[in-house]
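User: Second chain of the day. Same drill as before.
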Amino acid sequence: MQKLIEVRNLNIAYGGSAGWTNVVQDVSFEIARGEAFGLVGESGCGKSTVAYRLLGYGTINSLVQTGEVLFDGTDLLKLDAAALTRLRGNRIALVPQNPTTSLSPGMRVGAQIREMIATHRALPEGMAMEARIVELFALVGLPDVGHRYPHELSGGQQQRVTIAMAVACNPDLLVLDEPTTGLDVTTQRQIIQLLTDLRARIGMAMLYVTHDLALLAQIADRVGVMYAGQLVEVAPCEKLLSNPVHPYSRGLIASIPTMDTADRPGRGLRGVLRRDQMSTGCKFEPRCDFATPACRTAPQALEAVSDGRLVACMRWREAVAAHVSVLARKPDERPAEKPARLLSVDNLALSYGRRPSLFDRARGRTSPAVVRDIDLELRAGEVVALVGESGSGKSTIARAISGRLPPRAGTISLDGTVLAPALKERSVEELRQIQYIFQNPDASLNPRRRIRAILARPVDHFAIETDEKALETVLENVGLHAGYLNRFPDQLSGGERQRIAIARALLVNPKLLICDEILSALDVSVQARIVELLRALKEKHAVAMLFISHDLAVVQEFADRVAVLYRGELMQLADTATLLSEPLHPYTEMLLEAAPGLRKDGYVSRPPAAPASKAIPGIGCPLAGRCPRQIGTLCAETQPPVRATRNGFIRCHLTAGDLITRASPARRNNHASQITSVS
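Assistant: Same format as last time:
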């Protein structure tokens, strides 16, 4: 295949007057036209630094020491600013990790796409600009949202806008930096299918930077694994995921949570990446189970070991031979008696915009509810996962519980005491007891404060006695070290910033943690560490958690119960094991079918053939118009009843028995144990 871009011996350093630190060392790879190349590794390994150099981007404190980045034979590192501007967005486009900071908050999203097309004069002949913008929105599964501002869209919708903008000029190469991090599983599938279709239609090549190897399995042709700035293995995607060779690759893949229980190719990674402890030889030596004294001093370089596979390890044969199966985690042993109820949410309804006045309510003027009829409870030490697609209302519910969005109706109680609707009306102790960990650490960490000051502020605010050792301990618990205390947030990777946000919430010893997609920006090894930390907190200190996530594999490992939300209404609630192995509600089945695995499954994310009648907002079932089991116009025009199951409920016009008979034969036997009563 013809090479489109080739990276040769790239070395990049960060630093300044105090000296330079090499963060990317001798990285070489190539991408053919139409090929999808994945770049994976733990947070801070340098993968985003390499990716951004493919567009000629580099921070002011970075320096390319040696190397070339050849695009169609032209070295991008030698181009001036004007030449790079003509290239970016036109022939090489970027989909950034964080759409919130990449979209201009003061421009409507349609105008931002229009600006991209106009700048590069990329409007197809004979097509009107507005028609092209609507076409691009449709490509990424959005209606015409061009009149909206970014803040009026959910995180997943914002990310789809950035993808529409990136493909607007039909680029030759698309650089994707964690593009599906904040998206739910069904939207992830839509994006992957979109990218696959674009490759087939225009021959677009991709560099896909991610920590989500399960998702990468669905799209990548080849994968490069990075550790501490170096490529340690390059292989065809299927070969790498089924039989990794380098000890680091094996540990990374063994750390991935998946919905299946198949054996992994080794045990998970131990320790964390510490650049201050690396040897002059193999960088992975301090964490490697197969290291010898020679590994510490002998540099490792990529060498061909089989068809299409390169590996940088002198002991890869020993690693492959020493296969260690990973045992599934044993279920938690739970006490016979249920712990005390901590949080109770009763008949909660939420809307955005100003609260209707008495005058408005007397005349029937109310803001439309975006969340309706939510009943939920958490007990001390319990983890309840809230799952659903982007825009379903998960974060809206979390905002209300934390006091950042006063309810339109209903009550929220903590320890039997009804909480004031607004944050400013709650006591200091109530504020301490409920801590919120946000999805986006870029927006939740003060960029002008060092990490020490960021961690000290809540401690000082709640008058909690602490010392330097306590700050160092909480950093170690989230996989960081004391050296981070003197850094600013912009000196950390996205995953490292999220770990700081988690550490800040843990410092004040809360009773309830609201975790809003807190693992989405973390690599799999750090995810495993954080999950173990949170599990220890709930078991030792009875900390309850509302765990908002789109990663059903993590939910399976960690949550006690799962609540499934769709368009502001709870569709199903059940124990985790029951819900994931025996889903009843059609929407729950959709989520589970969309969850990626480590093997390419050929799944095509398209909505099922749906009846013509769609739900009347606030009246019919919100899934009407999309549900494959819809009953005529009944579902669209009538609110579905709540039907009890053995350990939860479903909200559906069909009885549990009817849902079972319409399920696949493989699931019917599993379902039968759930049904004990119907209300």
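The two ends are 62 Å apart (CA to CA).

User: Great, on to the next one.
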